[in-house]
Amino acid sequence: MVQPISRRPFLKAAAAVGLGLAAAPAIIGRAQAATVKLKLSSSQANDPKFANGRVYYDNLVNHLKQGGLSEQIEVDFFPDNQLGQEIDVINSVKLGVIDLMVSGSSISANLVPLVGTFDLGYLFGSFPQQSRAFDAGAAKPIEDALLKGSNIRIIAWAYNFGSRSVLARKAVHEPADLAGLKIRTLPNPVITECLRLMGAAATPLAMGEIYTALQAGVLDGLEHDPPTIVASKFYETAKFYSLTKHNFSPLAIYMSNANLTRMDAKLRDGFLAAAQAAAIDTRAHGLAVEQEALVVLQKNGVTIVDCDREAFRKRVAVQSENFMKSTPASKPIIEAIRATPV
Fold it and tell me: N or C, which terminus of the chain has less Cβ within 10 Å?
Protein backbone atom coordinates (compact mmCIF):
# COMPACT_ATOMS: atom_id res chain seq x y z
CA MET A 1 0.00 0.00 0.00
CA VAL A 2 1.34 3.36 -0.99
CA GLN A 3 1.61 5.76 1.92
CA PRO A 4 0.15 9.22 1.22
CA ILE A 5 2.47 12.16 1.51
CA SER A 6 1.27 14.75 4.00
CA ARG A 7 1.33 18.40 2.91
CA ARG A 8 3.95 19.55 5.49
CA PRO A 9 6.71 17.01 4.67
CA PHE A 10 6.05 17.53 0.98
CA LEU A 11 6.47 21.30 1.23
CA LYS A 12 9.56 20.80 3.36
CA ALA A 13 11.11 18.48 0.76
CA ALA A 14 10.22 20.84 -2.07
CA ALA A 15 11.77 23.75 -0.22
CA ALA A 16 14.94 21.74 0.32
CA VAL A 17 15.18 20.96 -3.37
CA GLY A 18 14.56 24.58 -4.27
CA LEU A 19 17.15 25.74 -1.76
CA GLY A 20 19.69 23.33 -3.21
CA LEU A 21 19.15 24.63 -6.73
CA ALA A 22 19.43 28.19 -5.53
CA ALA A 23 22.63 27.37 -3.69
CA ALA A 24 24.26 25.59 -6.65
CA PRO A 25 25.68 28.72 -8.30
CA ALA A 26 27.28 29.75 -5.01
CA ILE A 27 28.87 26.31 -4.67
CA ILE A 28 30.13 26.44 -8.23
CA GLY A 29 31.43 29.95 -7.66
CA ARG A 30 33.40 28.81 -4.65
CA ALA A 31 34.90 25.92 -6.68
CA GLN A 32 36.02 28.31 -9.39
CA ALA A 33 37.67 30.53 -6.80
CA ALA A 34 39.61 27.65 -5.29
CA THR A 35 43.37 28.06 -5.21
CA VAL A 36 45.23 26.66 -8.22
CA LYS A 37 48.13 24.56 -6.92
CA LEU A 38 51.14 24.04 -9.16
CA LYS A 39 54.22 21.87 -8.72
CA LEU A 40 57.52 23.30 -9.98
CA SER A 41 60.54 20.99 -10.34
CA SER A 42 64.27 21.71 -10.55
CA SER A 43 67.25 19.37 -10.60
CA GLN A 44 69.45 21.93 -8.87
CA ALA A 45 70.12 22.53 -5.20
CA ASN A 46 67.83 24.67 -3.06
CA ASP A 47 70.21 27.62 -3.15
CA PRO A 48 68.56 31.08 -3.30
CA LYS A 49 71.61 32.70 -4.88
CA PHE A 50 73.47 30.25 -7.11
CA ALA A 51 70.75 27.79 -8.24
CA ASN A 52 68.62 28.95 -11.16
CA GLY A 53 65.54 26.92 -10.17
CA ARG A 54 65.29 28.43 -6.71
CA VAL A 55 66.02 31.94 -7.98
CA TYR A 56 63.29 31.61 -10.60
CA TYR A 57 60.83 30.24 -8.04
CA ASP A 58 61.45 33.15 -5.66
CA ASN A 59 60.99 35.64 -8.51
CA LEU A 60 57.78 33.92 -9.64
CA VAL A 61 56.28 33.97 -6.14
CA ASN A 62 57.20 37.66 -5.85
CA HIS A 63 55.53 38.58 -9.15
CA LEU A 64 52.41 36.57 -8.34
CA LYS A 65 52.18 38.55 -5.11
CA GLN A 66 52.71 41.85 -6.92
CA GLY A 67 49.97 40.91 -9.37
CA GLY A 68 47.53 40.08 -6.58
CA LEU A 69 47.50 36.39 -7.50
CA SER A 70 49.28 34.83 -4.54
CA GLU A 71 46.00 33.69 -2.94
CA GLN A 72 44.68 32.26 -6.20
CA ILE A 73 47.83 30.51 -7.44
CA GLU A 74 50.05 28.53 -5.10
CA VAL A 75 53.36 27.20 -6.42
CA ASP A 76 55.14 24.43 -4.52
CA PHE A 77 58.85 24.14 -5.24
CA PHE A 78 60.64 20.78 -5.49
CA PRO A 79 64.43 21.24 -5.92
CA ASP A 80 67.27 18.75 -5.98
CA ASN A 81 65.51 16.07 -8.10
CA GLN A 82 62.83 15.53 -5.45
CA LEU A 83 60.31 14.65 -8.17
CA GLY A 84 62.77 12.50 -10.12
CA GLN A 85 65.64 12.85 -12.57
CA GLU A 86 65.15 15.45 -15.29
CA ILE A 87 64.39 12.97 -18.06
CA ASP A 88 61.54 11.57 -15.94
CA VAL A 89 60.31 15.01 -14.95
CA ILE A 90 60.12 16.33 -18.52
CA ASN A 91 58.00 13.31 -19.42
CA SER A 92 55.79 13.97 -16.40
CA VAL A 93 55.33 17.55 -17.61
CA LYS A 94 54.37 16.14 -21.00
CA LEU A 95 51.72 13.98 -19.32
CA GLY A 96 50.51 16.77 -17.03
CA VAL A 97 51.56 14.95 -13.85
CA ILE A 98 54.00 17.80 -13.02
CA ASP A 99 52.96 21.33 -13.92
CA LEU A 100 56.23 23.25 -14.23
CA MET A 101 59.93 22.59 -14.71
CA VAL A 102 62.92 24.93 -14.74
CA SER A 103 65.77 23.48 -16.79
CA GLY A 104 68.01 24.13 -19.76
CA SER A 105 66.61 23.60 -23.22
CA SER A 106 68.81 20.50 -23.55
CA ILE A 107 66.54 18.11 -21.66
CA SER A 108 63.57 18.64 -24.00
CA ALA A 109 65.69 17.78 -27.04
CA ASN A 110 65.17 14.16 -25.96
CA LEU A 111 61.49 14.65 -26.81
CA VAL A 112 61.80 16.92 -29.84
CA PRO A 113 65.21 16.78 -31.58
CA LEU A 114 64.90 20.26 -33.11
CA VAL A 115 65.30 21.75 -29.61
CA GLY A 116 68.87 20.41 -29.73
CA THR A 117 69.70 23.31 -32.04
CA PHE A 118 70.37 25.42 -28.95
CA ASP A 119 72.94 22.90 -27.68
CA LEU A 120 75.26 23.27 -30.66
CA GLY A 121 78.76 24.21 -29.59
CA TYR A 122 79.63 27.90 -29.87
CA LEU A 123 76.26 28.76 -31.43
CA PHE A 124 75.77 31.78 -29.17
CA GLY A 125 78.48 34.26 -28.30
CA SER A 126 76.74 35.77 -25.29
CA PHE A 127 73.45 35.73 -23.40
CA PRO A 128 72.45 39.23 -24.59
CA GLN A 129 72.86 37.95 -28.16
CA GLN A 130 70.56 35.09 -27.24
CA SER A 131 67.87 37.48 -26.03
CA ARG A 132 68.12 39.59 -29.16
CA ALA A 133 67.86 36.51 -31.37
CA PHE A 134 64.89 35.15 -29.42
CA ASP A 135 63.11 38.52 -29.46
CA ALA A 136 63.58 38.55 -33.25
CA GLY A 137 61.83 35.17 -33.54
CA ALA A 138 64.61 32.56 -33.42
CA ALA A 139 62.95 30.71 -30.53
CA LYS A 140 59.48 30.52 -32.11
CA PRO A 141 60.07 27.41 -34.28
CA ILE A 142 61.52 25.60 -31.26
CA GLU A 143 58.55 26.54 -29.08
CA ASP A 144 56.07 25.47 -31.76
CA ALA A 145 57.83 22.14 -32.34
CA LEU A 146 57.88 21.32 -28.62
CA LEU A 147 54.22 22.21 -28.21
CA LYS A 148 53.21 20.12 -31.21
CA GLY A 149 55.49 17.20 -30.43
CA SER A 150 55.02 16.89 -26.67
CA ASN A 151 52.20 19.22 -25.54
CA ILE A 152 54.71 21.20 -23.49
CA ARG A 153 54.72 24.98 -23.63
CA ILE A 154 57.78 27.11 -22.95
CA ILE A 155 56.16 29.97 -21.06
CA ALA A 156 59.36 32.00 -20.62
CA TRP A 157 63.08 32.02 -21.41
CA ALA A 158 65.78 32.95 -18.91
CA TYR A 159 69.55 32.35 -18.86
CA ASN A 160 71.50 29.60 -17.24
CA PHE A 161 73.84 31.28 -14.77
CA GLY A 162 76.85 31.70 -17.02
CA SER A 163 78.26 29.89 -20.02
CA ARG A 164 79.11 26.21 -19.71
CA SER A 165 82.81 25.42 -19.23
CA VAL A 166 84.85 22.41 -18.10
CA LEU A 167 85.64 21.56 -14.47
CA ALA A 168 88.22 18.76 -14.29
CA ARG A 169 90.86 17.12 -12.12
CA LYS A 170 93.60 18.59 -14.36
CA ALA A 171 94.07 21.87 -16.18
CA VAL A 172 92.67 21.95 -19.71
CA HIS A 173 94.36 24.53 -21.94
CA GLU A 174 93.67 23.03 -25.38
CA PRO A 175 91.80 20.10 -26.99
CA ALA A 176 94.73 17.72 -26.49
CA ASP A 177 94.39 18.16 -22.70
CA LEU A 178 90.87 16.73 -22.81
CA ALA A 179 91.96 13.49 -24.47
CA GLY A 180 90.84 10.50 -22.42
CA LEU A 181 89.09 12.58 -19.76
CA LYS A 182 85.62 11.31 -18.84
CA ILE A 183 83.62 14.54 -18.77
CA ARG A 184 79.99 14.44 -17.74
CA THR A 185 77.55 15.90 -20.21
CA LEU A 186 73.80 16.24 -20.20
CA PRO A 187 72.02 13.11 -21.43
CA ASN A 188 71.53 14.77 -24.81
CA PRO A 189 73.21 13.64 -28.05
CA VAL A 190 73.99 17.14 -29.33
CA ILE A 191 75.88 18.40 -26.31
CA THR A 192 77.54 15.01 -25.91
CA GLU A 193 78.80 15.31 -29.50
CA CYS A 194 80.03 18.84 -28.78
CA LEU A 195 82.24 17.61 -25.91
CA ARG A 196 83.46 14.68 -28.02
CA LEU A 197 84.53 17.07 -30.77
CA MET A 198 86.29 19.20 -28.15
CA GLY A 199 88.38 16.12 -27.33
CA ALA A 200 86.73 14.62 -24.24
CA ALA A 201 85.42 11.15 -23.54
CA ALA A 202 81.92 12.60 -23.23
CA THR A 203 79.88 10.74 -20.60
CA PRO A 204 76.12 11.42 -20.34
CA LEU A 205 74.84 11.27 -16.75
CA ALA A 206 71.86 12.56 -14.80
CA MET A 207 72.42 15.63 -12.64
CA GLY A 208 71.72 13.82 -9.39
CA GLU A 209 74.46 11.25 -10.03
CA ILE A 210 77.36 13.63 -10.77
CA TYR A 211 78.78 14.24 -7.30
CA THR A 212 79.12 10.59 -6.31
CA ALA A 213 80.52 9.71 -9.76
CA LEU A 214 83.21 12.38 -9.32
CA GLN A 215 83.98 11.09 -5.82
CA ALA A 216 84.30 7.53 -7.06
CA GLY A 217 86.51 8.48 -10.00
CA VAL A 218 83.93 7.33 -12.53
CA LEU A 219 84.16 10.87 -13.93
CA ASP A 220 87.18 13.12 -14.40
CA GLY A 221 85.03 16.23 -14.55
CA LEU A 222 81.92 17.87 -15.93
CA GLU A 223 80.84 20.87 -17.97
CA HIS A 224 78.55 23.43 -16.37
CA ASP A 225 78.21 27.08 -15.40
CA PRO A 226 80.05 28.50 -12.35
CA PRO A 227 77.04 29.11 -10.05
CA THR A 228 75.74 25.57 -10.55
CA ILE A 229 79.17 24.19 -9.67
CA VAL A 230 79.12 26.29 -6.49
CA ALA A 231 75.53 25.39 -5.55
CA SER A 232 76.14 21.66 -6.03
CA LYS A 233 79.64 21.78 -4.45
CA PHE A 234 81.25 20.01 -7.39
CA TYR A 235 84.39 22.01 -6.65
CA GLU A 236 85.02 19.63 -3.75
CA THR A 237 85.95 16.89 -6.21
CA ALA A 238 87.75 18.72 -9.05
CA LYS A 239 90.01 21.77 -8.85
CA PHE A 240 90.56 23.14 -12.39
CA TYR A 241 87.91 25.19 -14.19
CA SER A 242 88.78 25.85 -17.83
CA LEU A 243 86.78 28.67 -19.44
CA THR A 244 85.91 26.93 -22.69
CA LYS A 245 82.56 28.80 -22.78
CA HIS A 246 81.32 26.34 -25.36
CA ASN A 247 77.61 26.78 -24.66
CA PHE A 248 75.42 29.69 -23.57
CA SER A 249 72.52 27.45 -22.67
CA PRO A 250 69.05 29.02 -22.57
CA LEU A 251 67.04 28.33 -19.43
CA ALA A 252 63.50 27.27 -20.25
CA ILE A 253 60.43 27.49 -18.07
CA TYR A 254 58.39 24.48 -19.18
CA MET A 255 54.71 23.98 -18.44
CA SER A 256 52.20 21.29 -19.23
CA ASN A 257 50.00 22.81 -21.91
CA ALA A 258 47.05 20.73 -20.74
CA ASN A 259 47.33 22.12 -17.23
CA LEU A 260 47.84 25.66 -18.47
CA THR A 261 44.73 25.59 -20.68
CA ARG A 262 42.64 24.32 -17.77
CA MET A 263 43.21 27.60 -15.94
CA ASP A 264 40.54 30.28 -16.05
CA ALA A 265 41.49 32.64 -18.89
CA LYS A 266 41.98 35.75 -16.73
CA LEU A 267 43.98 33.80 -14.17
CA ARG A 268 46.07 32.26 -16.95
CA ASP A 269 46.92 35.67 -18.42
CA GLY A 270 48.02 36.95 -15.03
CA PHE A 271 50.09 33.86 -14.36
CA LEU A 272 51.87 34.05 -17.72
CA ALA A 273 52.68 37.73 -17.15
CA ALA A 274 54.17 36.87 -13.75
CA ALA A 275 56.13 33.93 -15.22
CA GLN A 276 57.66 36.10 -17.93
CA ALA A 277 58.52 38.93 -15.52
CA ALA A 278 60.17 36.38 -13.21
CA ALA A 279 62.29 35.14 -16.13
CA ILE A 280 63.54 38.65 -16.87
CA ASP A 281 64.58 39.08 -13.23
CA THR A 282 66.28 35.68 -13.32
CA ARG A 283 68.29 36.70 -16.40
CA ALA A 284 69.63 39.77 -14.61
CA HIS A 285 70.50 37.74 -11.54
CA GLY A 286 72.31 35.13 -13.60
CA LEU A 287 74.49 37.68 -15.35
CA ALA A 288 75.46 39.27 -12.04
CA VAL A 289 76.14 36.08 -10.11
CA GLU A 290 78.42 34.36 -12.65
CA GLN A 291 81.46 36.46 -11.74
CA GLU A 292 80.74 36.14 -8.04
CA ALA A 293 80.65 32.35 -8.38
CA LEU A 294 84.08 32.36 -10.04
CA VAL A 295 85.44 34.19 -6.98
CA VAL A 296 83.83 31.61 -4.70
CA LEU A 297 85.43 28.80 -6.71
CA GLN A 298 88.85 30.40 -6.35
CA LYS A 299 88.35 30.80 -2.61
CA ASN A 300 87.65 27.06 -2.49
CA GLY A 301 90.92 26.16 -4.16
CA VAL A 302 89.82 26.00 -7.79
CA THR A 303 92.26 27.28 -10.42
CA ILE A 304 90.55 29.26 -13.20
CA VAL A 305 92.15 28.45 -16.57
CA ASP A 306 91.78 30.85 -19.50
CA CYS A 307 92.15 28.26 -22.26
CA ASP A 308 92.53 28.46 -26.04
CA ARG A 309 88.85 28.86 -26.93
CA GLU A 310 89.54 29.41 -30.61
CA ALA A 311 91.12 25.97 -30.88
CA PHE A 312 87.99 24.41 -29.38
CA ARG A 313 85.73 26.52 -31.57
CA LYS A 314 87.47 25.33 -34.75
CA ARG A 315 87.12 21.68 -33.73
CA VAL A 316 83.42 22.07 -33.03
CA ALA A 317 82.53 24.14 -36.14
CA VAL A 318 81.61 21.04 -38.16
CA GLN A 319 78.84 20.19 -35.70
CA SER A 320 76.49 22.98 -36.78
CA GLU A 321 77.03 22.25 -40.46
CA ASN A 322 76.24 18.56 -39.98
CA PHE A 323 73.21 19.36 -37.83
CA MET A 324 71.73 21.62 -40.50
CA LYS A 325 72.09 18.79 -43.02
CA SER A 326 70.49 16.18 -40.78
CA THR A 327 67.84 18.55 -39.35
CA PRO A 328 66.93 21.03 -42.13
CA ALA A 329 64.41 22.87 -39.93
CA SER A 330 67.33 24.08 -37.82
CA LYS A 331 69.00 25.99 -40.66
CA PRO A 332 66.92 29.21 -40.54
CA ILE A 333 67.21 29.23 -36.74
CA ILE A 334 71.01 28.91 -36.84
CA GLU A 335 71.32 31.51 -39.57
CA ALA A 336 69.14 33.96 -37.62
CA ILE A 337 71.29 33.52 -34.52
CA ARG A 338 74.50 33.94 -36.50
CA ALA A 339 73.14 37.16 -37.99
CA THR A 340 72.40 38.59 -34.53
CA PRO A 341 75.11 40.88 -33.10
CA VAL A 342 76.98 39.46 -30.12
Answer: N
Residue 44, SS3 per DSSP: coil
Cβ count near 15 (within 10 Å): 10
The answer on 128 and 73 residing in a single domain is yes
Tell me: do 313 and 333 sit in the same domain: yes
What's the CATH code of the domain at 210? 3.40.190.170
Mean pLDDT by 10 residues, the chain (342 residues): 37 36 37 81 97 98 97 97 96 98 94 97 98 98 98 98 97 98 94 97 95 96 97 97 97 98 96 98 96 97 98 98 98 98 95
pTM for the model stands at: 0.87
d(CA 102, CA 79): 10
Q: Name the residue range of residue 253's domain.
A: 34-161+249-289
Residues written for the chain: 342
Task: Identify which of 273, 281, 249, 263 has the alpha carbon closest to the alpha carbon of residue 127.
Answer: 249
Cβ-contact 309, 245 below 8 angstroms: yes
Do the Cβ atoms of 100 and 255 come closer than 8 Å? yes
Same domain, 131 and 75: yes
DSSP state string for 25-92: HHHHHHHHTSPEEEEEEESS---TTT-HHHHHHHHHHHHHHHTT-TTTEEEEEE-TTTT--HHHHHHH
